[in-house]
Automatic annotation (TrEMBL):
Cited HAMAP family: Ser_tRNA_synth_type1
Official protein name in the record: Serine--tRNA ligase
Associated pathway: Aminoacyl-tRNA biosynthesis; selenocysteinyl-tRNA(Sec) biosynthesis; L-seryl-tRNA(Sec) from L-serine and tRNA(Sec): step 1/1
Protein residues bound to L-serine: 230-232, 261, 284, 380, 382
Organism of this sequence: Streptomyces zagrosensis
Gene encoding the protein: serS
Database matches in PROSITE patterns: AA_TRNA_LIGASE_II (PS50862)
Main localization (coarse): cytoplasm
Amino acid sequence: MIDLRLLREDPDRVRASQRARGEDVGLVDALLSADERRRSSSVRFDELRSEQKQLGKLIPKATGDEKAELLTKAGELSAAVKAADAAQDAAAEETQRLLRQLGNLVHSDVPVGGEEDFVVLETIGAPRDFAAEGFEPRDHQEIGQLLGAIDTERGAKVSGSRFYYLTGVGALLELALVNAAIAQATAAGFIPMLTPALVKPRAMEGTGFLGQAAENVYHLEKDDYYLVGTSEVALAAYHMDEIIDAAKLPLRYAGFSPCFRREAGTYGKDTRGIFRVHQFDKVEMFSYVAPEDAEAEHQRLLDWEKQWLTGLGLPFQVIDVATGDLGASASRKFDCEAWIPTQGKYRELTSASNCNEFQARRLSVRMRDGKHVKPLATLNGTLCAVPRTIVAIFENHQQPDGSVTVPEVLRPYLGGREVLEPVTA
RNA sequence: GGAGGCUUCGCCUAGUCUGGUCUAUGGCGCCGCACUGCUAAUGCGGUUUGGGGUAACCCCCCAUCCCGGGUUCAAAUCCCGGAGCCUCCGCCA
């Protein structure tokens, strides 16, 4: 959530941010009035409670009529205190409820608009010219079948649409990707983490996924658990309710976990292959930094993503995601989109978000900076979302015979294999 | 799944039986000051977090003894519910 103080001092800035996101501006006014009610009811409670405490000191010393009188008075006061307490609680709860509905403040450089209004910041590498090479590229689904790497048919039989099996070299390729990604992250100073895939409501809510994104989250009703859509959730909540010494920052984690997404409202979209699936594995980078270091860290996360994609030999572009497509937590988001030859366009492979103090406030993660305790900033960035990376590798590194050249960085993790060959059916 | 124990201001800990003087004890750690011509040692002071008052510091008020209810004029303390941790038993990869 955002800083209440900032809301009080500069409500127009918050309104502008809401407008840019295409969200309800009325929320800001409701919030201001709830906050005022919270403040005044809290002042009243404090006064009454103070009076009650004074009285409580006199009672044990008093005797006889004097005591009876004091007890009567205390009884009346007690009722008033209870009422004031209830009013205070109600106002505080209302303020919290409204505050949690508010998205993060949008960074001023973010392009305003919807999904299509992103700005391309950079293009790295160039798409292969398959025509010049004299063959028509196969899509990843077809290559996956030729290599015996992907089985979507049986995935659907067993679990339904958007499920798949990675088989043979497909399975090995995932393990290679994960190992290579973890190795890169570890070399960069990230602490490797295997994280829970089921989390409690507070973790999911605090990370900001139960707002507009809620329809894409799986929920286990019987136990009130949520399935994470990314290990970001578990990594953000890892330090929930803690105060971290400034000297320990930046704190960087590389999480690996399965990710579950309902993909509601995407019927008919990316239905072929494994580009958009309900379950996949992902290596995610997550940073806790001082707020003033957040923008620099955002750039660093992006650089590590670029290093990763470059190492895999994939042509890609970096975009500055527009306001309407940010998600509640991010103030700014950079996506790396890899070129997918058979689609003739760039598609999202990684995403780096600067949430500054938004998640930290909701999860109560703070830093101790000298005498002061304040919220810190959290950032997250994909290193390797496995299925999409496999899609990009298959399509970009395919040969006329359906074989796939293994990027050099992955070879050590694939027993030195340089090419994935079609299996004879 | 069954039985028992535990949870106090960074860590450890006193206090809970017998409600008010708990504005929570002591140790460790940490910070500051003093002192010995260095380090060490010693002494003194400080050290939970959140909200509010203040332009701000000092300071003051309120809340906070795992969480939520209840009893009471008054709850760390009594009662009920919940969570987490530990031990033992059962089951199990």
